[in-house]
Amino acid sequence: MGIVNQSTAVVSGHAIQHAVALGLDAGDVELAFLTPDLSATCSAPVALGCVVEVTVHYEFVPATPILSNLIGSLDLSSTAREPVERTYQSP
Hints:
- The chain is an alpha+beta fold.
- The chain has one domain.
- The protein has two helices and three strands, in the order αββαβ.
- The protein has a three-stranded antiparallel β-sheet, with helices on one face.
- The two termini are about 15 Å apart.
- The model has no long low-confidence stretch (mean pLDDT about 90).
């Protein structure tokens, strides 16, 4: 979504919508716009060629008491990066 719409609320909402079973909220989703070489953040407004990076964090807690006692909870995260294909200006 971030490659064509750079609205933080829209991109976070889209990530949450696609992870319904995890029960995520907006605080679990990080959004960054980076330069093409990933060395710095893109300045606003985001330009073509910048890279949108979406990271989702989730705390996994095993459902069974035995596993829960052995390993406790696990902090998981996943990151996706794609170049911006079209800039979007909110009306």
